[in-house]
Amino acid sequence: RQDSVVAGLAATPAAEVVVVHDGARPLASAALFDACVAAARETGAAIAAVPVADTLKLVEAGRIVRTVDRAGVWAAQTPQAFRRALLLELFARAGERSVTDEAALCEALAIPVAVVEGSPANIKVTRPGDLAVAEALLLSRRVGESASWEEEIGGRQGGSTGYRGAGDGTANDNVWSDASSISPSRLPDSPTPRLPRTGIGYDVHRFAAGRRLVLGGVEVPSELGLAGHSDADVLLHAVCDALLGAAGLGDIGAFFPPGDPRFAGADSRELLRESVRLVTAAGWVPVNVDATVVAEAPRIHPHVAAMKTEIAACLGLAADAVGVKATTNEGMGFVGRGEGIAALAVATVAPVEVTGAAVEAKPGGGR
Known about the structure:
Shape: elongated
CATH superfamily of the largest domain: 2-C-methyl-D-erythritol 2,4-cyclodiphosphate synthase
Structural class: alpha+beta
Distance between the termini: 60 Å
Number of helices: 11
CATH architecture of the largest domain: 2-Layer Sandwich
Largest sheet: 5 strands, mixed
């Protein structure tokens, strides 16, 4: 570690303040970096840390020896910021000392270090399970469910930089790329955080002779196919509607009109990929899809796994983020009479940090 920092110092001769940060802490906020740099400019050295909340036990040979008083005990994090001249002096005086971080060098040489209150979300990704925690924290950050670091610290400390003196305890490109009207603009401002959204999709197609039966991007053996301008994949059309609806963009017919010759016989997987592109351009990313196919025949269940795989690939999701189920209509209605197949879908989208495009949809109809 010390060799890496020395190499960094050599590469930054003009820097006034140098920041040392663990690559294993990918969730440190920009505000936390700024606060550490501000504190280092004023005091010479500053690190991020959080007060220890758990009860501490001293353990030897697998047995508790005693409870450690946690008053004034903080867990060190990074970033750690130092005036460059001070850091050079530290390494010059360090000799053969082996330390876990640069702040420990300051301690060994009796140089005071300011503490900037960090964040519990600034985790160190060390074990495989930490990746799942980091993923959840990132999603929470995008969705706006957690307060920003500035709000947390500013609210408690009157908007100060928050440091304390040591020791005070403290596109998929495709042939339909022009299927919609895209005009560059900034996404609309909102006074409240954008939360995940859910959309519902529904579609139905009647049976037709001489057509392939395609469901979820998978050809299903059947004497009859489904009538439609494209490949009539009723399942993917429902998923497209759910996604577009979740993003507030309208329905599938607004972007892929049934009379447009460009979409004659179209592979609905391409329509779904384009729908994902439109949703992403509007500032949203697919998170989950759950769908149900309603048909008396043929049997759908043997093909569900393949459908999940195809849908997940179009959405850029893992297969376990896609649900596909099949049921009958118990002999009732047009589906029960064997006249066609219906599909329903629910899609969840979450906001993403984009400066993309607003999408203008026109009212549309069937496919």
